[in-house]
Amino acid sequence: MALPKRDGARPLFRVFLLTSGYMVVEAVGGWLTNSLALLADAGHMLTDVAALALALGAMWMCERSAPPEKTYGYYRLEILAALLNAVILIVISLAIIYEAYERVQQPPQVRGREMMLIALGGLLVNGLGAAFLHRARHQSLNMRGAFLHVLSDGLGSIGALVAGGLIWARGWYLADPAISFMTAGLIIVCAWRLLKEAVNILMEATPAHIDIAGVERAIRSVPGIRDVHDLHVWTITSGKDALSAHVILADDHVSPKDVLHGIRVRLREAYGIEHVTIQIETPDFEEEEIHF
Q: For the CA atoms of the chain, what is the radius of gyration?
């Protein structure tokens, strides 16, 4: 399968290869050093590999032409990929918290120096991956999910590095589960925000950056419009907002063409909304407003 042509696909694939290779190193290292922090980071890297593959697959599918039964195409697959990535992050973090709690009861011996060396390698790999994805992270929610996976994995490597230092220098074996607790907590907070945004898009909620009252005022300000109703604004996929509304003309002498042009110009300039569907109604024909 060829790489997607969209911006961000190539760096995403590079990060996928980097993460896959070092995941094996961390898993073996965690087993040899008996470190939960390293094993947790390796497990997190496994979810990263799956998440990056999912993100690449979603980008590839979105480039396919829309079939008759899917009039919006496959754009929503990017949002579903982001949603799944957020859920995976939360589940893995909860599993780490549970295992860390078990280790607090009976802290096992951990080889701190070896743990530090492996964690340092993981930090370098994740830092390189984050650098690859940094510029592309704002392109879509899907790319943000992939970037969040790499960034949170970097946090895991930093945690493992700190825990290894404390164990090596002071023999404090509780550092391993303690750092795992903190890392998992930070990941859950970030993943929850991603999950919330993905759910809002799937629920066709008004985008967070759109002031719906302001949109209505902008439409009403167009000359020749008496009223606006059934106004809806939603997100198809990241960066693609859509709007539909019913507008009532002030009188029969108003030009519908001028009104439509005025609405499109106002919405494009003020809110960047390009996908606009407007139903024109005359004073003697007003369709009853539908409440959802």
A: 25
Residue range(s) in the chain whose domain bears CATH number 1.20.1510.10: 9-202
CATH of domain 9-202: 1.20.1510.10
Relative to beta strand 275-281, strand 240-249 is: parallel
- Return residue ranges of the chain for CATH 3.30.70.1350: 212-281
d(CA 52, CA 39): 20
Question: What is the pTM for the complete model shown?
Answer: 0.69
CA–CA separation, 251 and 226 (whole Å): 8
Q: What is the pLDDT of residues 194-251, one digit of tens each?
A: 788 889 888 888 988 889 999 999 999 999 999 999 999 998 877 788 999 999 998 8
Instruction: Indicate the fold that domain 212-281 takes in CATH.
Output: Alpha-Beta Plaits (3.30.70)
CA atoms within 13 A on the CB side of 65: 2
Tokens of 254: 């108003």
Closest CA to 187 of 266, 278, 96: 96
Pairing of strands 225-237, 240-249: antiparallel
